[in-house]
Amino acid sequence: MISLVSLTACGGGDSSGGGDRPSVEDIEGQITQSSQDQVTEKQAACLAKTYYESDLSDEAVRLLVEAEDVSKISPEDLSEADQKASKELYEPLVKCLSPAE
Questions:
Q1: SS in 3 state form for the chain?
Q2: Total domain count for the chain?
Q3: Do 50 and 39 form a contact (C-beta atoms < 8 A)?
Q4: Residue 73, CA atoms < 13 Å, CB-side half-sphere
Q5: 19-44: per-residue pLDDT in tens?
Q6: What distances in angstroms separate CA 25 from CA 48, 49, 58, 77, one per listed residue?
Q7: How far apart are CA 18 and CA 15, in angstroms?
Q8: What is the model's pTM?
Q9: How high is the pLDDT of residue 41?
């Protein structure tokens, strides 16, 4: 799961393509699959909603959903705007992963 959070430290996607933003359910499915049971359903839902509502471009979110291994997404895969937007996601994503108090 750390790889999903580390993605935000690097960035999120390319804004040059076209298309619609993946749904919260699509994002959640990728998070669940790539986390290999390291996150709870509640955490996956929180992460998915955070990505969906973020300033990342639709293409960046699609890159996250379609990646076979999100840890292999590099800053060079992303636009400058998506790199900035992904850095702003770090704290909200960490908050999703924190145990409820």
A1: CHHHHHHHHHCCCCCCCCCCCCCHHHHHHHHHHHHCCCCCHHHHHHHHHHHHCCCCCHHHHHHHHHCCCHHHCCHHHCCHHHHHHHHHHHHHHHHHHCCCC
A2: 1
A3: no
A4: 30
A5: 589 999 999 999 998 888 789 999 99
A6: 7, 9, 15, 24
A7: 8
A8: 0.77
A9: 93
